[in-house]
């Protein structure tokens, strides 16, 4: 997942990975300079993550910034 984390970091995002039994939870959170238009749709991200992790995509839960409590979107 380091490759994905590096790509996200280049666009101003952080990636948290949590193993939940046989599932994996990925949380993408924005930094102060996050590029909202740079995030791919969740289905595309799920496919990339599934390939990297070597698991089925339906075992991956994804939280994007818009899903986070209090997220107001970009301020710039």
The profile of the biggest β sheet is:
3 strands, mixed
Largest sheet, spatial ordering of strands: 1-2-3
Tally of helical segments: 2
Reading the helices and strands in chain order gives HEEHE
Tally of discrete structural domains: 1
What is the percent of helical residues?
25-40%
Radius of gyration: 12 Å
Termini gap: 29 Å
Q: Would you report the number of β strands?
A: 3
Strand content: 25-35%
What are the low-pLDDT stretches, counting only 5+ consecutive residues below 50?
A: none
Query: On the 0-100 scale, what is the average pLDDT?
Result: 92
Name the structural class.
alpha+beta
Global shape: globular
Organism: Trebonia kvetii
Protein name: NifU family protein
Question: Which terms would index this structure?
Answer:
alpha+beta; 76 residues; globular; 2 helices; 3-stranded mixed beta sheet
Task: Please provide a brief summary of the model.
By secondary structure, the chain is an alpha+beta fold. It is 28% helix and 26% strand. Strands 1-2-3 form a 3-stranded mixed β-sheet, covered by helices on one side.
